[in-house]
Amino acid sequence: MSDLPPSSKVANPVSNTLKDSPNSDQLMLISDQIRVSLSAVGARMCGLYLRGEAGQDDGPNETNIAVGLQSDDAYLAQDSYIGAVCGRYANRIANSRYVDPTGREIILSSNEGPTHLHGGVVGFDKKTWTVTDATDTKVRFEITSEDGDQGYPGAFHATATYSITAANRLRIEITATCDQLCPVNMTSHAYWNLSGQFDRSAADHVLQINADAWLPINDQLIPLPGTQDVAGTGYDFRTPSRVSDMLPKAEQGFDHNFCLTGERGTLRQIATLSDLASGRSMKLFSTEAGLQFYLSQHFTDDMKTKDGVGLHASAGIALEPQTWPNSPNRDDFPSPWLKPGETYHHVIEWEFS
Prior knowledge:
Elements: E1 27-30, E2 34-39, E3 44-51, E4 62-64, H1 72-76, E5 85-86, E6 92-93, E7 97-99, E8 105-107, E9 116-117, E10 130-134, E11 138-145, E12 156-166, E13 169-178, E14 182-183, E15 187-188, E16 191-192, E17 206-209, E18 211-214, E19 228-229, E20 241-242, H2 243-246, E21 255-260, E22 268-275, E23 280-286, E24 290-295, E25 317-322, E26 337-338, E27 344-352
Antiparallel strand pairs: 1-2, 2-3, 3-4, 5-15, 6-9, 7-8, 10-11, 11-12, 12-13, 13-27, 14-26, 16-25, 17-20, 17-22, 18-19, 18-21, 21-24, 22-23, 23-27, 24-25
């Protein structure tokens, strides 16, 4: 096989990672009702703590509801993307290739068999972002991806800004620019378990999604042609439903894109997650066109939280707002293309009660 063109070669996988660096210090956002732990490794949310009325730091009145591991090294040692901002392209691109609107073929790094997943072998989850602003209520991360990184064309610059916008509301605003035509799809890969008990399954949570259609997938988890109505399937979460009750009717399990209602580019409520036993709930808002819902199946007892608790295989529910998977190869999907001079902009908000 001949060499790839310069803009399609995979970058050195060691560059811009923490492979030879000490663990980074974690940053904190705090309000009377929530405390958020962040790391520059992957611009990652390491924990989200619901605080009691007294608001003690690290006290008995705090409950962490976001799956997190013991250290930056622990995140880098596995491929679960826990809490990270994924990019340049979150989710999957079939056969690690696409042909852009100009007819140019781009070959990407493969990291799930023949598939390109969450930005490739060394996606943004494995890189150390730069902290450019940090207060008690806002942290801004930035990253630069060189031309050819993981096969993508163009010099690419992204920001991810976490902020507490109300006592019970967290926001992440993601932007990106590129000096060549490039697909972009960035999201937060947080896993939630509102019980705060990560050695137990999250499948008893109740989920509601504002979507009338979903994307069936093949055995490589790539969307098949067309969309399918959720009515009469195990993917109908238009009314709140317990995940474990829907699972027997979901022939392919839960790792699918839901085609959201409402206008892309408009911040709107797209989902609600609840834990009836604890009475906790989370509203999810986004400006994007799709929501990837994944019930974890791969966590193990060897993956430990900061408290040393081993994870249940299904300890987390990932709700990842984004554009639709494999969209660089699908003209019928919402466009992923970022042109020179344009700015990609995605806002996600979580509201807790």
